[in-house]
Specification:
52% of the residues lie in helices and 8% in strands. The chain is of the alpha/beta class and 333 residues long. Among the domains are: 72 residues, no CATH class; 94 residues, no CATH class. Strand 6 and strand 7 form a beta hairpin. Helix 1 crosses helix 2 and helix 5 runs antiparallel to helix 6.
Length: 333
């Protein structure tokens, strides 16, 4: 080991990605060493700027003649953050690159801690865009496919991920809620909390493990919001079904029935039995037409084969409107 290396713990290894040979500062996290530029870090982060303004001791830790600073943060999170700040104008966050939610979340956590406001805003805006624009996605799908393709939860989720420049999994919602609270981005909350309710119940109870070993959990208050919201979300699903069945019985809707108007009686029986039925939908049925509900009402399965083909298709029509305000209300935000 050379004299310039003697002050560095032997377990620290050069990071394969964030290592600039002409860098003038080395950041060590765990067993990973990153070589960067003080000027770039100082420009992005007030904390690093202040840290570098303090003279380092002459016998301080060094590697390759560079001063070494050790941080307690996970190396994976720091790598995401350093990757962001070493790209001019954070272009990989702002343009056509589609980052995974986990990367953006790591940038937000580290950037918030080290007061790198610009990079946090770039990453958080991507996250906010995904969780706040879902009403327009739903409206677009329903408008384009009315009368041609029924709406399913899977179709909505696929389309929303395709339309938004961020790759998100349902379980990411738990960390998104925490980031919304941390960063003061309340527009993230309604849909993120909804996804928490729609996901694995064990995640709601135990949280979701992150790559850095930490666990993203709902606060006690947000956990209670979800528990109280689930019955209301299910009731909203039932109300939508009831509304579709009631509308299907009207003369104007039945004007092109190919069964001589006999489907009106079928719809009446279906509507009557549905009201009497103790139907329990799943939360994601809020985004599904009747034929594609996860759990179908007995009233539907009993009578739908008695309908003509045109009247069956009427049940694929989804009434949309006011869901964004509804979620805000149901979670008491």
């Amino acid at each position: 080991m050379s004299p310039t290396d003697c002050h560095l713990a032997p377990e620290a290894k050069r990071d394969e990605e964030i290592w600039f040979e002409d860098g003038n500062i080395i950041i060590v996290a765990g067993d990973t060493a990153f070589r960067l530029y003080k000027g770039i870090l100082s420009a992005a982060s007030l904390v690093f700027k202040d840290l570098f303004s303090v003279p380092q001791p002459e016998d301080g830790e060094t590697m390759d003649n560079c001063p070494v600073i050790r941080l307690p943060d996970p190396a994976t999170d720091l790598r995401h953050f350093f990757r962001a700040v070493t790209k001019p104008d954070f272009s990989h966050l702002r343009h056509d690159y589609k980052p995974a939610f986990g990367m953006l979340a790591a940038v937000c956590r580290i950037g918030h801690k080290y007061q790198a406001d610009e990079v946090v805003d770039a990453a958080a805006s991507r996250i906010e865009n995904f969780f706040a624009r879902w009403p327009s996605t739903a409206a677009t799908i329903i408008s384009k496919n009315r009368g041609r393709m029924p709406l399913t939860w899977e179709l909505f989720w696929w389309a929303h991920n395709r339309l938004c420049p961020t790759a998100v999994e349902i379980q990411d919602a738990f960390e998104a809620v925490g980031l919304a609270r941390l960063l003061g981005r309340p527009s993230i909350l309604p849909f993120a909390l909804y996804l928490c309710c729609a996901g694995d119940p064990l995640h709601m109870r135990d949280g979701v493990p992150r790559p850095d070993g930490a666990v993203s959990r709902l606060s006690s208050e947000d956990y209670l919001r979800c528990i109280q919201a689930i019955p209301k979300l299910r009731a909203a699903c039932s109300d939508k079904i009831r509304s579709v069945l009631a509308r299907s019985m009207t003369a104007s809707v039945l004007s092109d029935c190919t069964n001589g108007g006999q489907c009106a009686e079928v719809f009446e029986m279906m509507h009557r039995d549905f009201i009497e039925e103790k139907y329990v939908p799943v939360v994601t049925d809020l985004f599904a037409s009747i034929r594609f509900l996860r759990t179908k009402p007995v009233a539907y399965t009993t009578y739908y084969l008695c309908l003509c083909s045109r009247c069956v298709l009427r049940l694929d029509v989804i009434e949309y409107g006011g869901e964004a305000a509804f979620l805000t209300k149901v979670f008491e935000l």
